[in-house]
Structure formats: structure tokens, C-alpha cells
Amino acid sequence: MRFENVQAVPIILIICFLSEIVSRVEFTNIKCISHDLEFAEVEYCYLKSVNRSYKYASMKTKLYKTPINDATVNLAVFKRMSGYKPFLYNVTVDGCKFLKHKKSYPVANYLYSLFGSHSNMNHSCPYDHDIIVDKLTTDFLNSQVTKVLPFPEGDYLLKTKWFVYGILRVSINVYITLS
Description:
Strand content: 35-45%
Keywords: Signal
Structural class: alpha+beta
CATH topology: Ganglioside M2 Activator Protein, Chain: A
Order of helices and strands: HEEEEEHHEHEE
Pfam families: DUF1091
Distance between the termini: 45 Å
Radius of gyration: 20 Å
Mean pLDDT: 82
Number of strands: 8
Number of domains: 1
Low-confidence stretches: 8-21
InterPro entries: DUF1091
CATH superfamily: Ganglioside GM2 activator
Strand order of the largest sheet: 1-8-7-4-5
Signal peptide: 1-27
Shape: globular
């Protein structure tokens, strides 16, 4: 009986377990732009690096004309390939209807899941308060982007445009690297 092949099996299994690909999300930039300062103003929008492994994004938009009963959101994902090119998703949803019936909009629901639990946008219209995304960590995004729906490695841009009463009010661009 030859034992050479029997001994090779555990070594091959160990190599397979050790070579499992583990993706990691890292914020590279965030840009928030208020297009109508009389309606809404981005009070703060930043990335904070606490240490090498703990980073988070936070933003706050002050709303000056409330209540808001009509909001539309365009969410688009771009991948960097000789410039940023559209990648996989570009959806526009009625924000008020979406927040009432999230399961009716699976793509928008997935994109909302990337930040929704760290935000105060957890109810349907009307909105009569400022909009806040607080301490959205890379660890949280890592579980959503790599376990829920795996993405290939690369540089990505999540571009959002927020329309209220049919007028573009705020744009938020979040840049991440998936390695």
C-alpha cells in the first residue's frame, strides 16, 4: 500500500483552507455636495480613521424646508476601469414608497442595507428632521459587500443623488476599495 498520496491529502486540505480569499473593504474618499443651499446644507461629511483597522464615515444634512413628502433617490455603483464605469446597479426609486415597502425594491433594499442601520432614515415620509449617517464602519460594509453579495476586487464608487420635489438637492459619492 502506498502512503505517499494519503499524506498529501491533509496538506492539500490545509492549503485550500489557508488560501481562502478574504476580501476587505476600505473607504478611500467621500464627497457630499449640496446643490440647493436654501433647501439643504451638508453640515459635515467625513471619513475618520481611528486606527489602521477601524475607519468610519459620518455625514449630516440639515434640512431647511420641512416636511418632505416627495423624495426620489438615484443609487448607482461604478467600478474603476480606466475611469469610473457603470457597474451592476443604477436604480432610481421613490424614497417615500421604498421606505414603506422595502421588499418591493430588492436592489434598492440591498444598497440601502449598506448604510440604513447607521442612519436615521428608518421611517417613511414625511421627514421633518435632519438626515444623519453616523459612524458607518468598514467592518459593517465588509460583511454586506463580501458575504451578502460578493463583489470582485477593485475600486468602487457608490454615487447617490437625492431629489426632493423633483429638484436635485444633494449628491453623495462614497469611494471604496475592495481588496
